[in-house]
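Per reviewer request, we include the raw input and output of the structure prediction for the construct analysed in the revised manuscript.
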Amino acid sequence: MSSLFSFPSPPPCPQAEALRGEVRDFLATELAERSPLRRAESWNGFDADFSRRLGARGWIGMTWPKRYGGHERSALERYVVLEEMLAAGAPVAAHWIADRQSGPNLLRYGTEAQRLSLLPRMAAGEHFFCIGMSEPDAGSDLASVRTRATRVAGGWVVNGTKLWTTNAHLCHTMIMFCRTGRPDETADRHGGTSQFLVDLTLPGVTIRSIDALTGEHHFNEVVLQDLFLPETALIGTEGGGWSQVMSELAFERSGPERFLSSFALLVELMRVIGRDPSERAAIAVGRLAAHIASLRRLSRSVAGLLAAGADPALQAAMVKDLGALVEQEIVEIARQLVPPEAGGDTYAAVLAYLTLHAPSFSLRGGTREILRGIIARGLGLR
């Protein structure tokens, strides 16, 4: 049991710490005019030009082989770039999913043709990906998906709907998880599923916006109606979708975005309480800092396991669950310590923005209930 939940220390990486200063200097110039409220967007900030500039510096696809447009740098160097971007509130959404999970998914399961076609453009910050997992009436229970790809001459015909598809309206390609086996072929809820590459400009794809409480348009409903996909769109093996998507989710659930989404508010809170905080404020902020330091250690360990080819799905679920708790706690503690009317306009704006977004932190990437079910199974409790 202990081996299931081990978080080994990542090895020292002097190159990563040397890179940190370079990244901070870059961001100090790039984000000089970016307001705290815009920085609070965290990894929801979409700026295609910024992503292309990162690609030009070699900061997307950092660990990928050079033959696919990557740079063969270490996982810890990549981690430094990620956490510095997130802590500074950089607009990374355009390339975020491609770099975090779609690229690694193709490296592990894609064909050589898929890799050569897509990965160099992803690493250059020129080709953007979204995730087609969730569905109406399925949510985080991916085993309940109903979207189906049916074999026809030369490929597949797809019918179904994907929900909460972040930035589908701004992306080029979606990796879609769906059913390919007939309902009577297997009693295994996880069997008979596959993954496909979907060009979002194809006829048969309709993208409809789902506006957030803030009025922002990040989420979408993607309707697939008699969509034809060629044989070359299949990722990995037919019927192997469940193990592939679980591997992909380990990348999605374990990164620093899982505990830095409300970091901009913590920065503003510390600015408001100043260098001589009350005892109550000092205890609260110290506690949050300790939580973030612990989560950072766990997250960096998962990055090391992923780089070593392990499948740390359980560890990633723990990082995601604990991280969402801290992200939501930052908002509540800030509100209690410094009410919006006492912190000034900038603080109040950041607090209001993250108060509206905080409920989603324990939904995206898997609900708290789903994650704790995964952890319980790992402990042999269910």
